[in-house]
Amino acid sequence: MVSEHNSRGFDGDWIGGTFSLAVAGNGLVAIASGFAAQGAVWAYNGHPVAPFDLSALALILGTLLITFTWPENYGDSQASQSQGLQKALTAVKNDSKIAMLGLIQALFEGAMYTFVFVWTPILEDKGAVPHGFVFASFMISCSIGATVFNYLSANQKPQQFLVGTFLAAAAAMAGPVMIDSPLVIMVCFCVFEVCVGIFWPAIMSLRSAHLPEEGRATIMNIFRIPLNAVVCLVLANQGSLSVKADFAICACAHVFAAICTIRLAGLIKASSASQPTSSI
Questions:
Q1: Is 254 exposed, middle or buried (0-12, 13-18, 19+ CB in 10 A)?
Q2: Whole-prediction pTM value?
Q3: What's the mean per-residue pLDDT of the chain?
Q4: Rounded (5°) CA angle 243-176-135
Q5: What's the pLDDT tens digit per position in 182-223?
Q6: Among candidates 83, 41, 181, which has minimal Cα distance to 33?
Q7: Which ranges constitute the DSSP H helices of 77-236?
Q8: C or N terminus of the chain, fewer CB within 10 Å?
Q9: Distance of alpha carbon 167 from alpha carbon 140, whole angstroms
Q10: pLDDT tens per residue across span 251-269
Q11: Cα–Cα distance, 118 to 175 (Å, whole number)
């Protein structure tokens, strides 16, 4: 989207708002999907495969829309894959801001994807769970977060308000570790999803500002290596870890993400101060 935004000559200041609208729109579609999935389960007498059958139709429609309406971004067609990877690794090595962005993304998204696996069992321990409605509640919270991002970004830079966002996410993940009330746990989960809604447009804005256009996709894929490592490490130890331990790990990851964001803000400030200012 960043490449298309730039190629069309849109104002660079619009990118954050565009990301926020994208996250909010995604949330609205996800809310409808949650209700549709729960309805499909009820329509087929509680059959757990019904939502997957319904999702196949959405995937087919999405494929058709992408095929006939999206232009292709081929990047630099002259560069080989090995050259692209080498340039991306060099950028990560030489620019501490890029490396710090990757670490922040790995910590937050790693904890987020771990949450995807562990929220169901901790709620099911408290009784029957209408998964579709719970998911819709999460997506409503995520859309609220995207709206909050617009207000925060009007007065602060993403690296400034993300620190508080990560600390709020850490507190939300610590809730199920210390409290057994299903209502409080559900509130904590919704608070976390608000943080997710703030995180997505914020991290997208930071990536658009600090990742070079050439090799952006490759650098983002490099970021996914530690991200997937975090998730796999937690899931591989499910036999020896309790669900509460998983949430404690997620909370710690968010705290470290906040610390890294403070470091990133310092690097951005130092980089801006070192750039020469033009004189009239």
A1: buried
A2: 0.78
A3: 85
A4: 85
A5: 999 999 999 999 999 999 999 988 988 888 877 777 888 888
A6: 41
A7: 81-94, 96-124, 131-153, 158-178, 182-210, 216-236
A8: C
A9: 21
A10: 999 999 999 999 999 999 9
A11: 14
